[in-house]
Amino acid sequence: MSERLRSDRHILVAIGDIHGRFGRLEGWAERLRTSLPLPVRQGLAVGDVEAFRDAHDQRRKATKRTMPAEFAALADGAGSLGFPLAFVGGNNEDFEALSALPDGGEIAPGITYLGRSGMVELAGLKVAYLSGIHAPRFYDAPLLPPRDAASRKHAGYFRRAEVERLAGMRGADLLVLHEWPRGLIRPGLEGGPSPWMGNPIARALCEKLRPSWVLCGHGHRAWASELRWADGTHTRVACLNELTSPDQSLLWMEIGSGRVERVGFGFDPRPVWQEGRAWGPWCLPDVPPDDATSACSS
């Protein structure tokens, strides 16, 4: 590959549910920068980031309340990821802080909350996003200020207006969700997640937007699948685990000419998928590399 063509390419790293583990993420980010053959231009987290700056808030509102407030140290300049990080909201966040930024904004140097729903350009891709999970009872309910435990919990649910706003947009290359879309699993598939994982609203949104790729978390396991549409097109879906192991919760995308050309997991510079090949559970890192390469070439 010529130096000119190589310089046009870069990496976007998708990151599973952080759940406040920013110290771990910082160490992993350093390994990514030294392990991958191209520069990491952007990190993109799929929600449940739990970016609590205040240790008191961490103890009151975090999922893992005994953890130190590691985001505070990062935000105060005690550390760095080495690349910008953008994220969607999950159902466990510092909603009191994020409620002031419904359309997104920077919450610390180099760290940006995307907002409730919308589309932005990141690392050369048009990225659509929807924060939160589906709770049918609250889908049409007003979004109240998160002032107590109940309203903070309800802030983690997306609303109809947010979905409809996003559904009216066009041209997304990548869609970032927190919760899986329904229908990624065939009933009876041995070893796969439940076919009822995910929600139908996210599935309908995927069909409306038909991006090339969807990233999501929430389910705390890695999975790879395709959604196929009536017109013969398809959408590749990558589900990421929480930050337990890098090969289950980090997915890198090599981007060139405004599209995803290669994909891999963790710190391994070898791709499990290349443009023009099939995407599915055989591409997951628990499949031996030789088998994954063979399967992905079908």
Please outline what is shown here.
The chain is an alpha/beta fold and 298 residues long.
Question: How would you sum up this structure, described in words?
Answer:
- Strand 12 (250-256) and strand 13 (259-265) form a beta hairpin.
- It is built from 10 helices and 14 strands.
- It is an alpha/beta fold.
- It has one domain (3-296): Metallo-dependent phosphatases (Purple Acid Phosphatase, chain A, domain 2, 4-Layer Sandwich).
- The strands form 2 sheets. Strands 4-5-3-2-1-12-13-14 form an 8-stranded mixed β-sheet. It has a 6-stranded mixed β-sheet with strand order 6-7-8-9-11-10.
Task: Return the CATH topology.
Answer: Purple Acid Phosphatase, chain A, domain 2
Q: State the low-pLDDT regions, or none.
A: 1-5, 288-298
Question: How far apart are the termini?
Answer: 25 Å
Sheet-strand content, in percent, reads 15-25%
List the domain count as a whole number: 1
Cα radius of gyration in angstroms: 18 Å
Strand numbers in spatial order across the main sheet: 4-5-3-2-1-12-13-14
State the major sheet. Answer: 8 strands, mixed
What is the helical fraction, as a range of percent?
A: 10-25%
Kindly report the name of the CATH homologous superfamily: Metallo-dependent phosphatases
In the CATH hierarchy, the architecture is 4-Layer Sandwich
Give the topology string: H per helix, E per strand.
Answer: HEHEHHEHEEEEHHEHEEEHEEEH
- Total strand count, please? 14
Structural class: alpha/beta
Average residue-wise pLDDT: 89
What is the helix tally? 10
Shape: globular
